[in-house]
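Subject: for your reference before the review

Hello V.,

The reviewers asked for a structural picture of the protein, and I figured it would be easier to keep everything in one thread rather than splitting it across files. Below is the amino acid sequence we used in the manuscript, unchanged from the supplementary table.
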Amino acid sequence: MKLTVLLTVFVLLLFTSSANAAGADSWEEVERILAQALENGEKTPSFTLSGKLLSEMKQDADRFRVAAARAGLRSVAWTWWTDGKVEITKMEPFGCPVNTVRNKDELFSSVRKMRDRKEKDFVLLLDPSLYASMMADRAETKALLLEAGLLGWDTEYHSNSTCFLEYVSCTYWDGTVFRVNSEKELSSRLQEHASAGHDSFAFLLDSKTWSSMMSSDSERLRALETSACVRGDACSYYSELRLLVYHDKDASIYYPGYAILCAVRAGNEDHLPPIWKATLRTARQMVSTVHGTDEEMALSIHDMLCRHITYRIDDTTDSDDCCVGAVLNGEANCDGYSDAFLLLCGLKGIPVRLVDGDARRVSSPNEDPAHMWNLILLNGLWRGVDVTWDDNGNGISYENYNMGWDRMLENYRFITDFMPDNMLKTTDLRDRPVPEYRVKDADGVCDALRQAAETHRTQAVLWLDGQLYDEYRSPENPVWKWLDLAGVEGRVSYSDAERKLIISDITPLGADVMAGTADSESGIIGLMRSASGARELRAYLSPELYSRYLEEDSPVWKWLDLAGIEGSVSYSDVSRRVIVSGISPLGPSVLTTEAETSRDVIRILRGADKTTVKEVRIYCSESLFSSFASDNGRIWSWLESGGAADASIRYNAERRVIFCIDIRWQRQ
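And here is what came back from the structure prediction:
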């Protein structure tokens, strides 16, 4: 009985020992044994290696680690004996799906499977040659994973000894990856996918293209993105990988204005976010009354936005950076103005693009020069429009509307390589909503203002020669003289930095207001005489003539009399202007003249029209008036010799004028 029990115990011990120390003739058997132990929850399994495996393990222990990894173990610790017995002392499983990958096709399908299952963590057990190639070219590896649908991860573990890659906290996407070898190819690809409405894609750049695109703080890339209406903050770039990834899980990578237009054109309006739907509804209402040619509609939209938007930078929100804030709230920065112009023009079928760069004019050295504006296609040529700068707070300017390449180069610094070829080269200063003129002298100013009025323009911009601008800014400021001589009136503003005048609210003076210049007494008398049919005369006198006008014995009344008119007189020392208002003719009953001698007086009286003249005003020379003053009776002999029977006599010694009033003429 005792022998039977001992034999039974021995057999059981032998069987158990055989089970715990299973033999393995291949590394696949090792993998199976470890996998079975992991599945059974064993902590310290043991087994025996064949002589062949034992020899291979002595030469390269990583063969054992690879088998352990394929069994699902991140790491494994063991002891082993010369007889081939292996005892596992520690096992650490991966704790996530493990995929065995032998080539790129299997890598693609494995990652796609993980994406479809939305696995947060997973492991790739790679063929050694595939692992080596992927570790040698990390850029290509990232591109392969992106193509398979793996967008990013928080942590990546890898092991050279076991050829595994583990990705933790993965995010996925449906984007496409393109390999590009030139800036031109990158530009065309970006334009192609922007116009097609794709919202997720990536570019793997060659070294030369990466260096050129990302130099100077990546401003070339920024310009290219903007030309395709892509938001710069929607791009993630990996310098060490030469990789650009465009993706935003919460919003479009495009500026909202362009994204909305893409949805409208594709019939996908219902898929827009609620705030974008509201923006679209309001934008459609805004352009519902806009009709006409493309030129007329674009100008109407330009003016509409200038009136609708108030310039504002708000760091607490992104709405001012796009059409949402501009259209819905009426508040935006330059990005918002530009995006809104793109949206509204796009709804009317007018092609518009975004452009960004640096403004050449800033108010202070600390001001950020970054700026955005638009290009618009009219009559087959792209031209610049800057709605932000045209909304000047005091009204609507058109100085930055319909800009040619020359004007944009004056205003901005930006990358030219990505601009369209069919650009308007030179700004037509005259053919604009507000004409512009470059003038070198006062006559040029008057001609420009006169032309603006004749073409029914209410605003004009005058770019003055340096010397002429200095004259304008002098204490005598001749601008009102220029307006008067041009026959117009209006409001004047100026810019010292650009030596320009902006004349607004231009209206003609009218036929009843005259203006002119005079540098002599005969000149002012002739000017006054020509104003006999006007209501008001604005006369600009030379310095010498104005000094004479201001003297105590001012000859202005003499000038009026000799010109045959009367009216009230005012003046301005600053501009040397004399204004005669309320002009009316003296009429045929009053004769005014000058006389040097008594013979002149007699001759004048004899030549007077005896049927109409009732009053004669004689402006005397100094000697003649002295003769009259010394003997007032002489006037009667002059009157009698001139044919007058009687008259009332008055005089003004200061002006040396004798008034013969209520004349009765002798019978003929």
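For the response letter, the relevant points are probably these. The chain has a mean pLDDT of 89. Residues 98-172 form one domain.

Happy to draft the paragraph if you're swamped.

O.
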